[in-house]
Amino acid sequence: MLQWVAGTEAEYKTIVRTFLSVFPGTTAWVDGGLLAGSVEPPRLRRSDFDWKLKVPGRAQGLHDLNIESFDQLLAAFKAGPDDSRRVCRLGTAAHRRPPARRVFSQPGRAATTSI
């Protein structure tokens, strides 16, 4: 799964946290604004890259990012899952914790719970 990320620092961290909660093997690419989500971190192998360049649909995505060589792919890599968690100040198991619950109430209305 790929996701472009933009916004304020707080918005960026919120999106990355959410992405990590679903895809714990998330890596950040290009300028950190492209997240690649997976259950496990990817293994980068030159032979796999060369093979993917020969597959039309897969090659197009790399071409769109101006990645034409394995060295350019390595240069585009910015952060692995642990680095992403550190940026968002998440512990190694934080992606498994339920979100905090907050109770909101208005005069004349019963309190409601929001996640």
Describe the structure.
The protein is elongated, with a radius of gyration of 18 Å. It has five helices and six strands. A hairpin with a 7-residue loop joins strand 5 and strand 6 (about 110-115). The strands form two sheets. A four-stranded antiparallel sheet has the order 1-3-2-4. It has a two-stranded antiparallel ribbon with strand order 5-6. By secondary structure, the chain is an alpha+beta fold. Helix 1 packs across helix 5 (about 80-85). The protein has one domain (about 1-115).
Helical/strand content category: alpha+beta
Shape: elongated
Percentage of residues in helical conformation: 25-40%
Largest beta-sheet characterization:
4 strands, antiparallel
Question: Which regions are unreliable across 5 or more consecutive residues at pLDDT < 50?
Answer: 91-105, 111-115
How many domains? The number is 1
Mean pLDDT over all positions = 79
Physical arrangement of strands within the biggest beta sheet: 1-3-2-4
Descriptive key words:
115 residues, alpha+beta, 4-stranded antiparallel beta sheet, two-stranded antiparallel ribbon, 5 helices
Give a brief rundown of this model:
Helix content is 39%, strand content 16%. With 115 residues, it is an alpha+beta fold. The strands form two sheets. It has a four-stranded antiparallel beta sheet. Strands 5-6 form a two-stranded antiparallel ribbon.
